[in-house]
Automatic annotation (TrEMBL):
GO biological process: Mo-molybdopterin cofactor biosynthetic process
Cofactors: [4Fe-4S] cluster
Chemical reaction(s) catalysed: (8S)-3',8-cyclo-7,8-dihydroguanosine 5'-triphosphate = cyclic pyranopterin phosphate + diphosphate; GTP + AH2 + S-adenosyl-L-methionine = (8S)-3',8-cyclo-7,8-dihydroguanosine 5'-triphosphate + 5'-deoxyadenosine + L-methionine + A + H(+)
UniProt superkingdom: Eukaryota
Any Pfam family matching the protein: Mob_synth_C
Keyword match DNA damage: no
Function text: Isoform MOCS1A and isoform MOCS1B probably form a complex that catalyzes the conversion of 5'-GTP to cyclic pyranopterin monophosphate (cPMP). MOCS1A catalyzes the cyclization of GTP to (8S)-3',8-cyclo-7,8-dihydroguanosine 5'-triphosphate and MOCS1B catalyzes the subsequent conversion of (8S)-3',8-cyclo-7,8-dihydroguanosine 5'-triphosphate to cPMP.
EC number, UniProt record: 4.1.99.22, 4.6.1.17
Family: In the N-terminal section; belongs to the radical SAM superfamily. MoaA family.
GO molecular function, one term: 4 iron, 4 sulfur cluster binding
NCBIfam families in the record: moaA, PRK00164.2-1
PANTHER family recorded: MOLYBDENUM COFACTOR BIOSYNTHESIS PROTEIN 1 (PTHR22960:SF0), MOLYBDOPTERIN COFACTOR SYNTHESIS PROTEIN A (PTHR22960)
Protein name: Molybdenum cofactor biosynthesis protein 1
Annotated source species: Ficus carica (Common fig)
Amino acid sequence: MMSRFSNSALRFRKFTSLLVKSGNGSNTVSRCIEDEGVSGIPMRWYGTCFAKLPEDVPKDDNPVSQMLIDSFGRLHTYLRISLTERCNLRCQYCMPAEGVDLTSKPQLLSQDEILRIAHLFTSSGVDKIRLTGGEPTVRKDVEDICLRLSNLKGLKTLAMTTNGLTLAKKLPRLKECGLTSLNISLDTLVPTKFEFLTRRKGHHKVLESIDAAIDLGYNPVKVNCVVMRGFNEDEICDFVELTREKPINIRFIEFMPFDGNVWNVKKLVPYSEMFDRVVRQYPSIKRLQDHPTETAKNFEIDGHQGAVSFITSMTEHFCAGCNRLRLLADGNLKVCLFGPSEVSLRDPLRRGADDHELREVIGAAVKRKKASHAGMFDIAKTANRPMIHIGG
């Protein structure tokens, strides 16, 4: 390892420090240093650093701003809202083969309740909202929800993660209603494999939705691909090729454990292995400079319109820069994707709680957020909901 440091070809490409300061002083945190390395091949090692909250974080004791800051100084400006637990696919990594019990409709958040809670967050500093599911496009009032959310003061980005099955025909109206960013899930380019994984037909419809999004000017169109050994790791470079002529950001995601998806470490294809496959075929691949809160490691390839990213939740977590909270379809707030802890916002809201009371509930949950999630084997043994309940 020391020979790497002494090699004159080494040069730092980026050092991203964590924006951290707790109420009682600074915390020492581990953070990955990205080095472009020899021949442009990235190498990774870890250091510790001291850092402070960014200058634009409010410094007063206003609960409207402080409720989004956890005990490790992370400011949460990104809210993911699950609109429904229903889905028109049955992806194997998302739900068990026998299906799941869905929450009854009266126990799900209404449109007005979603907007009330979303307003609490945007008035407190959240500037990005992502709509998820289930499959968000199966909710009949999804256009109205988009329109009302996009008009919230302070909101800069309104995104959606969708399986793309019915997106093509709905997207023009969704864009008119303020949808600014899209992630479309597609785990294989082979129709028969698609049907095996999703237990449904419709591969061509997803491809049509990707093209429709490009035609409507979404740039980039992000395509989420969960990589699973023995299923689609042989298609990694085929997906990368999609980025050559189109503004597609293909995002390779490490297979993650959730209740009912029969996760096994043998199915996990780690980021290092995925990257090795790509760099062998595309040696000009180069790391981009990522924002400290970015979940993905982002790369560009010479001559390609699009980009390639890797989401490394299992092998190289990015908890130190996490700025995300999740509002589930049943009104529960989840501060960590892999943490079992949840707190209901629906119940106090329906009991007549005012904004101050709701902010106290939210702030207390955010303050309980841990520094990082557990390791992959502990996650696999921890009770959690199926992904379809949590929201993609």
